[in-house]
Amino acid sequence: MTTAETRSESAPARRANRFVVARVDEIPPGDRRIVDAGDRQIGVYNIGGRFYAMLNRCPHLAGPLCEGQVVNAVESPVPGDVRLEESRTYVTCPWHNWEFDVETGQSYWNPRLRARPLPVGVEGGAEIEAALQRGEIDRLPGPYQAEMVPVSVESDYVVLSLRPARGGTS
């Protein structure tokens, strides 16, 4: 929690780097809260009782990322078998619908990829399913990653911990 600081005219002003966001029960599972923390807006998410936070700024076009829809991954290992993968949660940028993993900030979209014809074959479903289960087949990370913010729970309060800017700028 932040405390007031006594400043003299000659002493530089220090920025608070810890902010109380809310009580834990004020952000129920599946919900989010966008807060002002110093000069930044930060989205705080409760995903299954665990808290994650990221800057409310899409690294692609600087859109209000945390205002986007929160969705789970959808998988379809074979045609007609569509499953909701609740262990992976994404926020979609409201400007262009790119998805960013709420836990890591990683995007799995690469605008440099172009559709092109590729050879195709038929493989046994059991081999593909086994490779999926072993984690041998997965999504490739794209070039963008949202900036994540450390968040913790202290005495039933959700608390953000902002680190000083890199390079010693004030």
What's the structural domain tally? 1
Task: List the secondary-structure elements in sequence, H or E.
Answer: EEEEEEEHEEE
Number of helices: 1
CATH class: Mainly Beta
CATH topology: Rieske Iron-sulfur Protein
Structural class estimated from helices and strands: mainly beta
Largest sheet: 4 strands, antiparallel
Which CATH architecture would you pick?
3-layer Sandwich
Short structural description:
This protein has one helix at 125-134; strands at residues 18-23, 32-37, 40-47, 50-55, 70-78, 81-92, 99-101, 148-149, 151-154, 157-161.
Can you characterise this structure?
With 170 residues, this protein is mainly beta. It has a single domain, classed as Rieske Iron-sulfur Protein (3-layer Sandwich). The chain is 6% helix and 36% strand. The chain is globular and about 50 Å long. It starts with 17 loop residues before the first strand and ends in a 9-residue tail after the last strand. InterPro entries: Rieske_2Fe-2S (IPR017941), Rieske_2Fe-2S_sf (IPR036922). One of its GO terms (molecular function) is oxidoreductase activity, acting on paired donors, with incorporation or reduction of molecular oxygen. This is 3-phenylpropionate/trans-cinnamate dioxygenase ferredoxin subunit. Keywords: 2Fe-2S, Dioxygenase, Iron, Iron-sulfur, Metal-binding, Oxidoreductase.
Topology, element by element:
Layout: E1 18-23, E2 32-37, E3 40-47, E4 50-55, E5 70-78, E6 81-92, E7 99-101, H1 125-134, E8 148-149, E9 151-154, E10 157-161
Domain Rieske: 19-129
Organism: Saccharopolyspora phatthalungensis
Keywords: 2Fe-2S, Dioxygenase, Iron, Iron-sulfur, Metal-binding, Oxidoreductase
